[in-house]
Design goal:
The protein is mainly α. It is 53% helix and 7% strand. It has eleven helices and six strands. It has a two-stranded antiparallel ribbon. A two-stranded antiparallel sheet has the order 3-4. Helix 2 packs antiparallel against helix 6, helix 3 runs antiparallel to helix 5 and helix 4 runs antiparallel to helix 5. The longest helix is centred in the middle third of the chain and has 24 residues. The two termini are 30 Å apart. The relative contact order is 0.11.
C-alpha cells in the first residue's frame, strides 16, 4: 500500500503539505461514507473537501498560503471576473473548471425532505452520487496537474488512497476474515478483494480467509472471472484483484454487507 508520505512527496511542493494531506483524508472519508451507504444530509455536501480544495487552488494561483480563507473568497480570487489579479495556476481553463465544480460541491444541499424516487432509491442516494462524482473529479484533476511521479501511476494511486478499513473484515495474524455470516462465497471473495485493493490476494490467501469448502472458493473465483461477469482478474504475480465491474458491484449491491449491522 502506498504510504501517505510517499504521496505527499510527489505533490509537495508545489502543493502545501498540510493542505494536501487534509484533502486526501477528506477524499477518503467521503468515499468511505459513500461506499458504506451513508446518505445522511450532513455528510453529503462535501463541505470540508471543498474548503481544502479551494485553499489549495488559491494558494497555487495567488502564491499566498492561507489555511483559513473561506471558499467564496478563494474562488472569487481565482475566477477574477474583473481580471484584476495575477494568476499562477498552471492551466487557467482547468482552474476555472475546478472553481465551478468546487462551488457546486460546497453549495449543494441534499435536504430534499420526504422526496423519494422509489422505496429503495432515495433522493439522498442520488445526491450522494452527484457529490462523490464531483469530489472524485476534483481529486483526479489535482493529481493530474501536480503529480510529479510517473503519469501512469495516477490511477493506481487513486485506488490505493481510497483504501480504508472495512468494518466487516477482521485482520489478524496476517489473515483476513469476513465477519458477516450472510454472504455467499462470491460475495466474500469480492469483499476481501475490495479490502485488499491493488495488492490483491492469492488463491491460497483466499482459502485461508474463507472458511468454506475449497471447491466452492475455486468455483466462485471462476464465475467472478468468467466472460459473463468479469469482476475479478488474476495479475501476472498470481494475485486476484477486482476489476472496475467488481468494485461497482460492491458499491451498488454490497454496501450494507461491508458493515457489521443487519
Amino acid at each position: 500500500m502506498i504510504d501517505m508520505k510517499d504521496i505527499l512527496a510527489l505533490l509537495c511542493p508545489p502543493l502545501n503539505d498540510q493542505l494536501a494531506e487534509g484533502l486526501i483524508k477528506e477524499f477518503i472519508s467521503q468515499e468511505q461514507r459513500y461506499v458504506l451507504g451513508d446518505w445522511e444530509p450532513a455528510t453529503l455536501d462535501g463541505g470540508q473537501f471543498a474548503e481544502i480544495a479551494s485553499r489549495i487552488i488559491y494558494h497555487v494561483d495567488s502564491g499566498n498560503l492561507n489555511l483559513h480563507k473561506s471558499v467564496n473568497s478563494c474562488l472569487k480570487y481565482v475566477v477574477d471576473e474583473n481580471n484584476s489579479n495575477p494568476h499562477r495556476f498552471p492551466q487557467r481553463r482547468t482552474a476555472l473548471h475546478l472553481c465551478r465544480v468546487i462551488k457546486t460541491i460546497y453549495k449543494f444541499r441534499s435536504q430534499r425532505g420526504a422526496v423519494h424516487i422509489d422505496p429503495e432509491y432515495t433522493a439522498n442516494e442520488l445526491d450522494s452520487t452527484l457529490i462523490i462524482s464531483n469530489v472524485r473529479w476534483v481529486m483526479s484533476e489535482l493529481l493530474r496537474i501536480f503529480w510529479s511521479g510517473e503519469r501512469t501511476e495516477i490511477t493506481r494511486v487513486i485506488k490505493e488512497i481510497l483504501r480504508f478499513d472495512i468494518p466487516a473484515v477482521l485482520s489478524m495474524n496476517d489473515r483476513q476474515l469476513v465477519l458477516r455470516t450472510d454472504c455467499t462465497v462470491e460475495e466474500e471473495i469480492i469483499i476481501l478483494l475490495y479490502n485488499a485493493g491493488e495488492t490483491g490476494m492469492s488463491r491460497e490467501e483466499l482459502g485461508k480467509a474463507i472458511p468454506k469448502a475449497a471447491s466452492t472458493i475455486t468455483n466462485g473465483l471462476a464465475r467472478l472471472g468468467s466472460a459473463e461477469q468479469r469482476e475479478v482478474v488474476r495479475k501476472d504475480v498470481g494475485k486476484f484483484i477486482l476489476t472496475p465491474l467488481g468494485a461497482k458491484r460492491v458499491r451498488e449491491e454490497l454496501s450494507q454487507k461491508l458493515t457489521l449491522g443487519s
